[in-house]
């Protein structure tokens, strides 16, 4: 079925859209059928700016290469060519039918076909739409427009078949649901619940990429609850099952009633969900908006992962610690983080978040220099949010945090980051031999600057001489 659909002019006039129009016109001028396809069409109808635009066409890969000057043959066997136009990349794919999916991710082969057949091979109805920008027509072979208007995530055809073909689709469904605010259609939801464990055959790298998108928004509790409803939470985070049987044994851990209501003894699982709910509530406050919007560093996902793992050390190998674990209580956790295929930086961020409570509990005993270093740490705001999410129901921690935030407000950027008065070159000019002691000297000097006991170069030189016993 074809439908007229008016897309806002400002979306069609964007550079990425203009490049996609150019490709469409070149294909049509060469005698081929061509449309915009997939997620970009969905986003345009929702009046959202797409990140990229894919094109589906009757032209074969070798014909696409002949038409365009700059191309990259990324998936010729699947009919896919990348076309480069004015700095933008466009995936141009030939209409096709997919063969058998033997590995649960990709078809063994494809057969070039028609636009209707191409639409029917896709994952969800809202992603099976085609659009022609000049005629402003939506070409809908899968009733995707109805589901888009109704706010539904529904597979094209049999849900079990679509998920059997590509297991990653099982995670894409909740991701689209959360990103778009749509519900998952009943049969699609039932199929996910029944096939949840099969997502384990997907590579962890791909799973983690989906998890980063699932938890990239401002509703981490809602995301975790949806994964739980779909039987995915404990498949993706197996340790969560152990938390269900681990009681909160101390009053220290008791939850506010408004957090997670439970008729039975509250468990560590309840505390984790309560923490995610606290995080979600903080995201609703405008002063925390920049945190969950920081998708470049994946910090929203890392905050969630840290909260999910906050009790991991308590339930993993309890009482069987090694000497290495005694030296580093986060050793098991570091190994666990490795299974999620995170970068070293990402793993370190999660560890630093989990260490935050120890830092804050030392706050009043720490010297001013150390407190200023904690405050200027780029992760400080994230540590505050993480700490609040875990312990906002404990009056001691809440009061301590108020004290810390008040102290933070006292300092200017110049007070937190004083300009160094001396460098290693200065120490060499003073006659000292380079070595590890240089770092210790400069650190000690910065301590004095942070505590406002040294203010100029002459005082700094005198401090180093005295420190060196001269």
Low-confidence stretches: 250-259, 319-327
> How much strand?
5-15%
Report the radius of gyration as a whole number of Å: 28 Å
Note the gap between the termini: 89 Å
Give a count of the beta strands, DSSP E runs of length 2 or more.
Answer: 12
Strand arrangement, largest sheet?
1-10-9-2-3-6-5-4
Largest sheet: 8 strands, mixed
Domains counted in the coordinates: how many?
A: 3
Helix percentage range = 40-55%
| Tertiary shape | globular
- What average pLDDT do the residues reach? 87
User: Structural class from helices and strands?
Assistant: alpha+beta
Count of DSSP helices?
27
Could you explain how this protein is built, in words?
The chain is of the alpha+beta class and 470 residues long. It has 3 domains: 2-154, Beta Polymerase, domain 2 (2-Layer Sandwich), CATH 3.30.460; 203-416, no CATH class; 424-467, no CATH class. It has 27 helices and 12 strands. The strands form 3 sheets. Strands 1-10-9-2-3-6-5-4 form an 8-stranded mixed β-sheet. β5 and β6 (88-94) form a beta hairpin. α7 (159-165) crosses α9 and α20 crosses α22. The longest helix has 18 residues, at 344-361.
Helices and strands in order:
Blueprint: E1 2-4, H1 9-12, H2 15-29, E2 34-37, H3 39-45, E3 54-57, H4 61-67, E4 71-75, E5 80-85, E6 88-94, E7 96-98, E8 110-112, H5 115-120, E9 129-132, E10 137-140, H6 144-150, E11 152-153, H7 159-165, H8 169-180, E12 183-184, H9 186-195, H10 204-214, H11 220-229, H12 233-236, H13 240-243, H14 268-283, H15 289-292, H16 299-308, H17 312-315, H18 323-327, H19 331-338, H20 344-361, H21 368-376, H22 380-391, H23 395-410, H24 413-416, H25 424-429, H26 436-450, H27 457-467
Parallel strand pairs: 3-6, 11-12
Antiparallel strand pairs: 1-10, 2-3, 2-9, 4-5, 5-6, 7-8, 9-10
